[in-house]
C-alpha cells in the first residue's frame, strides 16, 4: 500500500458501463470505505484507487488495501482538490459522513464535518474536468420514523414528519448538494444509495448494539417493522454503484421484514415493554451506557421502524442482496456468538402462524 500525505451479489444488468479509471473513496479508515477500497483495488480494470481519511486505517486494513494509495487528508482541506485534479480522478465515492458527533466535539463539529465537508468535496468535483461520477453513501434515516409512515418508502417519498435526528438532517442536506452538482455538471453521473440499518459482526451499528443486550427495552404497545441490510450487501451495493451502476437514487435493503419482537428473539434476547416516557431511563438500567449512545433518530427507529421499497435497486441498479432481513439477523447473531433463549424452529413456527392469521407477507423461509 502506498501512502500520500495531503493535510451480495451483483447482476450484470443491461447497461454497458465502463469501470472507473481512477477512483477515490472517502472514509477509508472505516469499515465500508476501507473494504470498498479493498474490493476496488482487486479489480484489474481499475487503474488506480485512492483512499482518503483523516486518520490512517488499521495495519490489517492497510494490508487488505494492497495497491491502493492512501491520502491522509480532511475533505474540507483544499489539498483534496489537488489530489483529484493531479491524479485525474474520474469517480468519487463519498462514504465519510459520521452518524454521531465526535467524542471530543459537538453537534456543530458534526455538521461541519458532514455538511461543510460534502460541500467542499462536491465543489472540487464540479471544478475538476476529469470527474465523471460521484457516488454518495446515504441512509434510510432521511425518511425518518413515525406512526404515519407508509409500509414502504419509495425513493420519491420524503419524511412524513420533520426529521429530528442530526444525522438525518445532515444527509438530507448532503443529498441536496449532490443534486445541485448534477444540475450544474450534467456530464457527471450522481448516484445516491440510501442504505437500510446495517447489521454485522464487523460493522458496529445501532441495531447491532441494541440487539446484543439480553434484556431489550421496547415501547409498550409498539412492535415496529424492521427491514435490515447485511454488512456484506452494503459493500456489494456500493461496489456495484461505483463500478457499473447507473445514476439515480436507490433504496438498498434486504428482502422481507421482521418485527422488533421477532428480531430480539432471533438474537437470543427478551423484550421488556415499557411506556415511551421511560424508554431511555429504564432502558439505561437494562442496557447500561449503550442506551445513552443512541441518537434521537435511532430511538425513533426502535419506536416505529421503517420499510423500504427496493424495486429500483433490482431493476435499475441491478443489485440483488444475498441476505434477507431474517438471514442478516441470524448471521449477525451467529457471528458474535449470541446464544438463543428460544429455539429457532419454535420461532419460525410461531411467526408462520401469526403471519398467516394477519395475512402479512414477510420473509419466513
Structure, explained:
There is one protein chain. By secondary structure, this protein is α/β, with parallel strands linked by helices. Mean pLDDT is 88; it is low at 9-14 and 360-365. Helix 5 links the parallel strand 6 (133-139) and strand 7 (189-195). The protein has an eight-stranded parallel beta sheet, with helices on both faces. Strands 13-10-15 form a three-stranded mixed beta sheet. The chain has a two-stranded parallel sheet with strand order 8-11. It has a domain at 2-14 and 21-199 and 229-252: NAD(P)-binding Rossmann-like Domain (Rossmann fold). The protein is built from 14 helices and 15 strands. Helix content is 40%, strand content 17%.
Layout of SSEs?
Layout (H helix, E strand, L loop, with lengths): L1 E4 L16 E5 L4 H11 L6 E6 L5 H7 L3 E4 L6 H8 L4 E4 L12 H21 L5 E7 L26 H19 L4 E7 L2 E2 L6 H6 L3 E5 L5 E2 L2 E2 H13 L4 E5 L5 E2 H7 L3 E5 L4 H9 L2 H4 L2 H9 E2 L4 H7 L7 H11 L8 H15 L7
Parallel strand pairs: 1-4, 2-3, 2-5, 3-4, 5-6, 6-7, 7-12, 8-11, 9-14, 10-15
Antiparallel strand pairs: 10-13
